[in-house]
Amino acid sequence: MGSRQTMREEADAKPPIERQLTEVTCAGCGCLCDDLTLRVQTGKIDASGVPCTLAQSMYVAAQDQVHRVRQAPEAQIAGQPAPLAEVLGLVAERLTRARAPLILGPTESSMEAQRAAVALADVLSAGIDTGLAASGSARWLARQRAGWVGATWGEIKQRADLVLCWDVDLGPGGPHPRFAKRFLEPPGRFIPEGLAGRTVLHLACWSDRVAGVKGETAIVIQPSHALATLAALRTLVRGGLVDLGSLATTTGQPAHLWAKLAQQLKAARFGVIVVGPIFDRHASLAECEGLERLIAELNVFGQGRFVGCTIGQGGNRPGLEAVLGWQAGAPRAVDFSHKHPRYLPLEAEASHRIAEGQADVVLAIGPQQAATLAQAHATRPFWIQIGHNATLAGSAGLVPDLAMATAHPWLEAGGTVMRSDGVPLPLTPLLRPLCPTDAQMLERLRRQIVEQGARVP
Ligand code: SF4
């Protein structure tokens, strides 16, 4: 792992070249499009040809951040610049002495860095979690109870004749601007008419983003009616009796609309319910379970195949959930304090441990949610920040006790990311990094801790 000065000299020694890169993966939103063409000239990314305004603005903002990080210190002690080697030694020493260390796993990094973070948690007998407060845990707990019938997005493109978007806006101005363009509009092997051959319906409880969709294809209900709606739909799908008049009064939507929706779902040859980050954020355990059981029952009582599809936010949270699943047996809230991984849902979630003051040293990798940082402000564990913007003033919302900057995970580091449907995709390093990557930094830290006497797993 060379110093930033050495890396800068190496970068300067190369003549500026112009490159055109194809099939670049974009981590700007949960679509993780892997078909972008970008030009890189004299160390600058030109994303003006990318057919997505969200991606264009993301690349401008990310490059601006890369520029600012290159002016910032490579490492800091209590907000003051310090040599990287010295800070690395202090981090290793402080983590080794910690009584109850906690790692906030990198949700923005490559899966290579995420594997290094899990290995570090094992060496330290630490807790490790995604660090995302109140997001995703209900979904995972519900899946353990009700199961999950999923499909890749490619399979949806080839086969889906009915798509129910539940609280997710797939329009070009929404948070997932190219999902429909890439997976619903093109002709599929069994849907040669493309979008014209698919029925697309919308149901919203927690957002009004589909309110602009006109006609009976859009249903808006109050959040408090989501569970009753799911229960009624499940009963209708099973052929049971539902008081449609009462359902209409409760939801404010006409009775015939619910009966028709249940019929459409059952009649699908290949149906899919798409949910996005809003559902993840707001749905309770009972609502997540209700949705998953509805999908399962549509496979029993419907005429065809029915699947669920989740679209995440940008970054690589599905990658961390997958890596934790492979390496420690659970997608989040893992605890190594008994020298082996234990899944402790809720109890070992980072937000709970920080709020209760149960972590004396927190190693935060990559950007963290404002809610997590606010909890850290209140209980004030010893805070170590590793990540691309770790040494940028105010970027963490609090001054870390120790901080080390790493290469930008999407623009400089490379590696592998995972789409929400479980498809791994390569990240192309677009710029020459002047900092070590987070995977390199975490591996170096693990080795140093082992050299200092920690047990080798
Ligand atoms: S839709 Fe999302 S992933 Fe695809 S190019 Fe736009 S911002 Fe990037």
In short:
By secondary structure, this protein is an alpha/beta fold.
Textual characterization of the structure:
The chain has two domains: 9-135 and 332-451, Rossmann fold, CATH 3.40.50; 138-310, Dimethylsulfoxide Reductase, domain 2, CATH 3.40.228.10. The chain has a nine-stranded mixed beta sheet with strand order 5-4-17-16-15-6-7-13-14, with helices on one face. It has a five-stranded parallel beta sheet with strand order 10-9-8-11-12, with helices on both faces. Helix 3 (84-97) crosses helix 17 and helix 4 (111-124) crosses helix 13. The protein is 40% helix and 18% strand. With 457 residues, the chain is an alpha/beta fold. The chain has helices at residues 4-13, 53-71, 84-97, 111-124, 137-146, 153-159, 179-183, 226-238, 244-251, 255-267, 277-282, 285-301, 317-328, 350-355, 370-379, 409-413, 438-451, and strands at 18-24, 36-41, 44-46, 75-77, 80-81, 101-104, 127-129, 162-166, 199-204, 218-220, 270-275, 305-310, 334-335, 342-343, 361-365, 382-387, 402-405, 415-418, 424-427. The protein contains 17 helices and 19 strands. The structure holds iron/sulfur cluster.
